[in-house]
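Chain and conformation:
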Amino acid sequence: DIVQMQLAAGQASFHHGWTVHASGRNTTPSRRVGIVMNYVRPGVRQVVGDVESATLVRGEDRYRNFRSEPECNRDFAPTNVAFQEDVERRKREVYDNA
């Protein structure tokens, strides 16, 4: 079923990353921010494209199927910006060639 829902400023929508959703153009001077989180066991591995990156949030990673993501110490740190650019490049290789 299709459900129409308008969010007020400051509200958030939480849904599965594959949920089909849309929003109109952002006409405000403020940014619209989106974030996707996927939780998997360390034993899971990427089978298409290059090695994926991840942050271990609990336990121990004995498999090393994911590159460790660098710790972020400040906004727009050059190391983190370069890492994110590499992540985006790798994702395009996977999704654009699927």
In short: The two ends are 28 Å apart (CA to CA). The beta strands are 53-54, 67-68.
